[in-house]
Amino acid sequence: MRGPIRLLALAFLAPAVAGAAPPAPTGWKIPVAVKKLQNGLTVVVSEDHSAPTFGISTVFHIGFRLEPKGRTGFAHLFEHMMFEGTPVAPKGTLTRVIEGGGGVLNGSTRYDYTNYIASAPVSALDAILWLEADRMKHLDFSEKNLKNQQEVVKEEIRVNVKNRPYGLFFWTDLAGKAFDKWENAHDGYGSFEDLDAASLEDVEAFFNSYYGPNNAVMGIVGDVTPAEVFAKVEKYFGALPERAVPPRADVAEPMNTAERTLDQTDPLARVPAVAIGYKVPAGVSKDYVALVVLGDVLLNGEASRLYQALVKGKELMLQVQGGVNFPFESPWRTGGPTLLGLFGLYKPTASAKTIADAIQEEVARIAREGVPAPDLARVKTKMRSDFYADLQLPIFRADVLALAQLLMGDATEVNEIPARLDAVTSADLKRVASTYLTVENRTVVDRKPAPPAAAAEKGE
After folding, report:
1. Are strands 442-449 and 260-266 parallel, antiparallel or unpaired?
2. In this structure, are 131 and 268 located in the same domain?
3. What is the per-residue pLDDT across 341-390, written as a single tens digit (0 to 9) for each?
4. Fewer Cβ close by (within 10 Å): the C or N end of the chain?
């Protein structure tokens, strides 16, 4: 996984994870078995008997762009509420059961989903399934718990946005400028006003609307068999009722037809920064996969085109990073439109326009000439390596499979990604570069250090 959002994740915990590695990636196909319960809960199981452990991911189809209007950050807030305990398993019970046996757990919120992941010895499977079913059934809703988590989320915003140089402008501000629909453009991290306005009734209604079994997919990977997992999940989750899920908004957007720019100042910054994004469609279409490869050609590592051209060559930038669905971990974890985006620090002697024009020169060169076969082969090799590295631990493999089932409708799509990457040609890169990475479809956010007087006033 990659990108600064990994360090600034909307996570309740940030544990180190250990586990067994999968088989060698050459020709490796992840075994997948899927079952849907009568109440709508979909379960994905993959056997891996290399160690007596398992990973579990429960993903709910609710995220930043799917939350109700007027409740910015509500999906994020509720991610935290799910760790506040239930009437029969008080706060801390889930953590003690998992960590007490040597396991780990985490949770995060993204545009199209909220996930809860854990890893533990296989002997803890029954206990963890019982606890997961218990918090899918009911939570310990109280004013105390709500107030506590409202303050926790607000403190995250202070630490990760308000009191950090550059904050998350390369995500929140760039998306807010690039997209038109509220669902895609609003700040999913949350505003203090909307968080404070959330009532206990709002929280209960949100839980009843989005946290039912029919709005979830569970992935389990490890020293298990599909038959035993399906039986256990039926035992613990089968009696939970299906719930009505509100209709989802249409989040599709066309490409932009005129460049968009935004100038900002940052009292905590010492050098200027720029964020640039091009709107790209959702889905694992031929164009989308080619855009993912193009994003890596341009931005993945010090051998990338933009690092070599703008950091090493013209020496305009101090650093640059990005890709499709940046700054989130993976381009394969989105269910709607996203950006091929980048973030970089640049030298005060340059300008955001100079940077944007220099990037456009590199894009135009690919649109004309494509990418030489050796360069494209090198990029694909690294992408396959990164892809398999993300699947190394059962906890993350369970998450990838659950999300593929939720967002693509088929967990086995994960096995097709390496071949789709391999199939991308230089001609494909020429086509998508000229189609999507245009000035008209470009958004540029320029964030300069605040003048000394303004910075001093901010520090008072």
Report:
1. parallel
2. no
3. 999 999 999 999 999 999 999 999 999 999 999 999 999 999 999 999 99
4. C
Q: Which residues are registered as beta bridge partners of 273?
A: 345, 447
Strands 114-121 and 53-60: antiparallel
Give the DSSP per-residue string, 349-398: TS-HHHHHHHHHHHHHHHHHH---HHHHHHHHHHHHHHHHHHTSSHHHHH
Q: Which of 364, 285, 274 lies closest to 331 in space, CA to CA?
A: 285
**If you average pLDDT over residues 203-222, what whole number do you get?**
96
In which order are the strands placed within the sheet that holds 104-109?
Answer: 33-36, 42-47, 216-222, 53-60, 114-121, 104-109
**Bigger pLDDT: 107 vs 10:** 107
What's the average model confidence in pLDDT over 73-92? Answer: 93
| DSSP symbol at 123 | G
Domain residue limits at 452: 260-459
223 with 264, same domain: the answer is no
CA–CA separation, 403 and 115 (whole Å): 9
- Chain centre distance of CA 416: 20
Sign of CA dihedral 113, 118, 122, 127: negative
The answer to whether residue 247 sits within a structural domain is: no
Q: Minimal CA–CA distance to 439: which of 179, 181, 257? A: 257
Residue 22 has pLDDT above 50, yes or no: no
Contacts of 294 (CB under 8 A, 6+ apart): 340, 366, 429, 432, 433, 437
How many domains, the chain? 2
